[in-house]
Design the sequence.
């Protein structure tokens, strides 16, 4: 040898011998192993990935007497099950990296990395928007999409109008859904309100969602002489796909609105629905659908994010796909990140109704179609629905008058997550809106995440 040196080369507290060889141009190492002890090996571990607190089984040899186990340098608690198995827990603060075991027989390091995943909880709401009268209640189903997290999640709601209260059917919840009930009083402020629902749990990355609530003054109605016929073909089941999209300004400067999400190359035959508030069925210069991110006068600050809920009607056999791009009003692509959430299948029921004026005279509006017979949990899902969660919700009709003998056709849409069948009775009515009260309108909030 050219030279000889000693040092603790394997971290077991004993000096080892290393020599630099002249002829072979390499280094030889002689480990100082305590007599009677055997060399420790770490052959494998399972599972290969998981969040903090995951139990990981290490398989190898000569684990007896192990003094430490670390995940990428972070020490953790462990149990020596046998000389060939250790059960360790992924510690708080651990990141993706090698697993190390220290025993009297030496220190061993895994050949591959253990991947530390981040638990994620995102939300989806059905319906995404509702309109009620003051003094009525609104009910939303809040669905929880969990990734690597099965623990309890607290749900918080903000942005309620003055005079309204909110409660969840289960909070905290360990399930995948909770019912949000918003109660209003006759003194509740009227207007359009953007409510923010946030999931909260230790160690998770959460994605809040925004839902809309419109509170109106009560409408007095009176019945009109008419014939109301349900479509003879009956109820039609329609399936839609919902997807959350989070857009983030990754630049160092604010971006002035309006900004749009362009759905380039949207699968032919797939329709972007406009029932979800905040979604505009505008078309870009390239012929692709646009979704408004920020409006004129609004800015997207550095690191700020906006989460949108898209709803698609896909009656084709093709898989839904598109290339999301951030563009300005001129159609120029802007810098930023776009993260697509998972697809959620939502089923709706449609019923066509024909109204005939049988009064013998012209009728003047405003007109509404009142729907009675809905059971608890069955919701009138039309975008113009008023009091959709109550026993007799209404929708406003886009006509100012109806001539004698004339007809108008209305397509009703219902969200029915219950096992009960729909059994509705529609009625053609005329409404008179009460004198509006002074209301406080909440400014639309944007979801912010700092980098």
Sequence:
């Amino acid at each position: 040898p050219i030279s000889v040196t000693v040092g603790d080369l394997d971290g077991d507290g004993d000096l080892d011998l290393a020599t630099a060889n002249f002829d072979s141009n390499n280094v030889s190492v002689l480990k100082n192993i305590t007599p009677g002890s055997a060399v420790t090996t770490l052959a494998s571990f399972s599972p290969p990935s998981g969040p903090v607190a995951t139990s990981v089984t290490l398989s190898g040899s000569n684990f007896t007497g192990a003094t430490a186990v670390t995940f990428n340098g972070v020490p953790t608690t462990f149990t020596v099950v046998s000389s060939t198995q250790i059960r360790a827990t992924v510690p708080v603060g651990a990141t993706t990296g090698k697993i190390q075991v220290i025993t009297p027989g030496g220190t061993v390091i895994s050949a591959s990395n253990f991947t530390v995943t981040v638990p994620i909880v995102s939300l989806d709401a059905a319906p995404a928007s509702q309109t009620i009268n003051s003094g009525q209640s609104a009910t939303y189903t809040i669905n929880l999409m969990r990734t690597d997290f099965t623990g309890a999640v607290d749900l918080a709601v903000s942005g309620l109008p003055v005079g309204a209260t909110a409660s969840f059917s289960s909070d905290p919840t360990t399930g995948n859904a909770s019912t949000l009930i918003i109660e209003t009083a006759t003194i509740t402020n009227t207007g359009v309100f953007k409510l923010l629902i946030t999931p909260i749990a230790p160690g998770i990355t959460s994605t809040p969602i925004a839902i809309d609530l419109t509170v109106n003054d009560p409408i007095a109605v009176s019945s009109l002489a008419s014939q109301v016929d349900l479509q003879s073909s009956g109820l039609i089941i329609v399936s839609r796909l919902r997807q959350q999209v989070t857009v983030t300004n990754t630049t160092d400067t604010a971006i002035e609105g309006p900004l749009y999400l362009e759905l380039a190359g949207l699968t032919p035959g797939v329709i972007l629905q406009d029932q979800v508030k905040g979604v505009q069925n505008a078309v870009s210069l390239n012929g692709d659908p646009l979704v408004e991110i920020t409006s004129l006068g609004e800015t997207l600050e550095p690191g700020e994010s906006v989460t949108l809920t898209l709803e698609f009607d896909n009656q084709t056999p093709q898989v839904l796909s598109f290339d999301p791009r951030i563009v300005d009003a001129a159609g120029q692509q802007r810098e930023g990140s776009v993260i697509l959430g998972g697809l959620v299948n939502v089923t709706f029921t449609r019923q066509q109704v024909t109204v005939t004026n049988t009064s013998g005279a012209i009728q003047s509006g405003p007109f509404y179609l009142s729907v009675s017979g809905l059971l608890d949990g069955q919701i009138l899902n039309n975008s113009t629905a008023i009091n959709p969660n109550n026993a007799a919700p209404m929708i406003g009709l886009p006509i100012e008058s109806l001539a004698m003998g004339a007809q108008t056709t209305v397509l009703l849409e219902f969200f029915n997550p219950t096992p009960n069948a729909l059994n509705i009775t529609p009625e053609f009515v005329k409404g008179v809106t009460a004198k509006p009260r002074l209301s406080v309108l909440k400014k639309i909030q944007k979801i912010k995440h700092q980098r």
